[in-house]
Amino acid sequence: RMAPQLLPLLLLLLAGPPAARPAPPTCYSRMLTLSREITADFQSLQATEPAEPCVRYLPRLYLDIHNYCVLAKLRDFAGSPQCWRVAQVDALKDKVRKLYTIMNSFCRRDLVFLSDDCNALEYPIPVTTVLPGHQS
């Protein structure tokens, strides 16, 4: 029969070492992740809400956090009056406001803009794939 005071120690040993905590997100990784979520949510909204005519009139939302025009794009989307009664659009606008705030204040020093091509934010960023063995 095991002594009662040994039971907690045995359980602790069986549980193993404590799990390593993941590193907290950096400003850059948080901005990148949130911008990708917003773009995916916008594309999903366009696909699932065709019954809502207002969705067609929302500003396009294809984000590239390395494009200087993204700040104006976020501001315009968050302030657009369209779809103010559609829950999915409200949730998307909240995410947009959050990203704008992060980019414009908390992480401003971490931003590096590689472009200022505003037209590039009007269309989805093409995904390029390279077949194995066909690199040039």
From TrEMBL:
It comes from the Eukaryota. The keyword Endoplasmic reticulum does not apply. InterPro entries: CYTL1. Pfam families: CYTL1 (PF15153). The keyword Signal applies. GO terms for biological process: positive regulation of transcription by RNA polymerase II. Keywords: Signal. Residues 1-22 form the signal peptide. This is Cytokine like 1. The lineage of its organism: Eukaryota, Metazoa, Chordata, Craniata, Vertebrata.
